[in-house]
Here is the input.
Amino acid sequence: MEPSVEQSPHHAYPGHWEADVVLRDGGTARIRPITTDDAERLVSFYEQVSDESKYYRFFAPYPRLSAKDVHRFTHHDYVDRVGLAVTVGGEFIATVRYDRIDATGRPASAPADEAEVAFLVQDAHQGRGVASTLLEHIAAVARERGIRRFAAEVLPANNKMIKVFRDAGYTQQRSFEDGSVHLTLDLEPTAESLAVQRAREQRAEARSVQRLLAPGSVAVIGAGRNPGGVGRTVLRNLLGAGFTGRTYAVNSALDADQDTIDGVPAHRSLGEIGEPVDLAVVAVPAERVPEAVADCGEHGVQGLVVLSAGYAEWGAEGRERQRELVRQARSYGMRIIGPNAFGIINNSEAVRLNASLAPERPASGRIGLFTQSGAIGIALLSGLYWRGAGLSTFISAGNRADISGNDFLQYWYEDPDTDVALLYLESLGNPRKFTRLARRTAAVKPVVVVKGARHSGSTPPGHAVPVSRIPDATVSALMRQAGVIRVDTVTEMVDAGLLLADQPLPAGGRVAILGNSESLGLLTYDACLAEGLRPRPPRDLTTAATPQDFRDALAEALADEGCDAVIVTAIPWVGEDGEAEQGDGEVLATALHAAAAAGPAKPVAVVHVEIGGLAEALAAATSTVAQQRPAPAQPSGPAPGRTPATPATTAPPATTPPPGDADAAPEAAESAGARAVGRIPAYPAAERAVRALSEAVKYAQWRRQAAVPGKVPEFLDDTIDEPGAAARIDAALGKDPDPRGRPLSPDEARELLACYGIAVRPTLPAPDAEAAVAAAGRLGYPVALKTTAPHLRHRADLGGVRLDLATESAVRRAYGELTELLGKPAELRPVVQAMAPRGVDTVVRATIDPAAGAVLSFGLAGAPSELLGDTAHRLVPATDRDAAELIRSIRAAPVLFGWRGSAPVDTAALEELLLRVSLLVDDHPEVVAVALEPVVVATQGLTVLGASVRLSPPPARTDLGPRRLSNY
Here is the structure.
């Protein structure tokens, strides 16, 4: 809302303070500055506040606001006096105000850095987290205006307000003066305040998703009078799934005498229903959606699933229609899945919701599935169905104008019914937030992602997201740093999801292979080697093996402490009469289930060729509750879906029945503490089973490492001059910086890097041979003569570098050769530099990507990184563990560690350099690019021979500041 012309002219209306937020109960509200046009809203709001709340606000009975009060509370300069309001449906439900004060408590202006703050929340909306959300936003506003502390006077009986201040996480002081509690809050964010903010964000956004997935009642708006059509299909699917709540059909064109559709009460509008409706599925043409949304908002609907098409996927007009849809829904406190969505499914027996176009509700299971594509959603549902997999929840978000994969990560993080999260994503609306949420979720349950539209260079229709400048391989590396299992196809996603949902995490990469086909065993062995696993020689049970032989062999492999996982290979076997045994699949599946239940908790996968009924029988889970099997032996970490609250314990080896003693099996299994084992995943090809197991091994390793996070060594702090770096950056950018930024000169870059303990070996210009000789004399022999022309820079292969020049004559001769071979000095821009100790040439870079954030990169200089793309990446800030992994994760890493008998280089110095660059970029967001090339790493120490730095005004950060929903 823009202010009227009467608004105080001290400062322009701060539109960037406007924000949509999710409250504690999952509903939405809008926060915005109060303007002079809000007088009537303020009076109406105040009239709905109880006398007790008014007393707490003004410390005295205050039944109504005077004209002077209204003027004071609606006229602000947005600098020293600021008021914010929380609105739902355009009406105020809460307000907050600060007034800048001096040391005596009197009104003041800058440079006074303290303000008095006061809140008022309508009684009907207390307990929804309104005040705590307002505090985050008013604190951010105050910091922007140079205010560092809030002072508040609170009556001792006002426990709710005291709790809001106490729980915010800010550094604070409390005292009791003149019958009231005096609170002072330091507004500088702390680790505790950030943790509080993110915990509240998680609870609120998870609750907003829960309201959509577990409604008490559903109305299908647009259910047709005749069979067929989108609305009627959703209604039929709701009924077919056995939805446990109330179901209604809404169609404005119903005949006067028609009061049911498919046996469901039918109405012309939501208002006619006469009972609360929690969720509305909107299946009407796009031009009629605004009317339906208004009807929902006015009758208290909590959330919408919009199946209607005709939005951003249709171009500019559709994008504006989509923005207006989100704006309208949020104004009523509702969240949206869609538009252009396929629908949602919740398989919980307490809900049994199928508000989608999927004809059948998939089996109940432990997998949560999110997709941005309806077509991919159909394919995934079909694939999971035929593999016998079960889902906890399914969401197809379409254009994801509001609710996105981030919201569902918030929900699945604590969802007891979900052990694995699968996401098909075509875009990342808030990449930094996704990485943060994925890292936290992956610490307790696997997150498997397929990223579509990786190489198209364009955003999928309907998706408004920042455009990334980094290659897809970098995105993949950053996802893996966050613990995300990144796969290339939806088939691989299903393969990995099946293994992770029902099998424990492996303790390592040692794989036992057994089966009745030597050839299939060898294929599996080769696939394991290709995926970096450590397979044991396959055990051939021969084609004469019986299900009991499989059971005995599997039990033996699981009991072997040198084995972390087992892959069983099976082909049909022939009976004594020469014909294939009937019922092979069911019998073999029973034997494998029994062996897995009796043995230690290790993952088991089956590769089979045309054994009828085997996959279906293996998929028949004995339970769909969260796994209770022991955690695998250290160092593997807890099983999927279980919070690592206590250290993992080693499961004792289970006893097995004597070979061939089938009758003793049940008793032996029971005495060994047999467990209820879920589905054993079956694969039609060895490569697919091994690839899924490989992902589980890598994820388990990440979990083990994430349990003890890395840190930035404290000794670095003594060698870093952060204020000095900030002063140099401010001076370089100037008072009115160019938004495009500017590169630093070599001397400026050297001085800035020196503030972080990064020494760059100096160079001296050599415009002619005499200048080159003089420079060599100043620097000391031996020296290097190099060209710095852009087309020759870092290209020793083109002859633009001469090394180990130990005399004046050598310098003159080298100078003549360069100019004769490559061109005039003015074109070559030669420089002289003192020689560095011999070592391995590497390159260290840091860049700010608008989509991914700050990225630290490392590789070997020259062909390995430039031609082969052998570069590793980590998100900033990097920890000591990140730095160590960074230099070890490139394919050419052996060159640094003594390859072919060479001396290992000083990797500790290299790790320290990476940490220093990470700190520089993290501390100073104006540093948008750093390149150190080459960095020569010797056996002791390293030398930075070249450096470039680019500065720019700080990019906008969507992952910091107070909680807010993405802009529409």
User: Anything to note?
Assistant: Residues 5 and 36 are 9 Å apart (CA to CA). The chain has 28 helices and 39 strands. The mean pLDDT is 86. The radius of gyration is 33 Å.
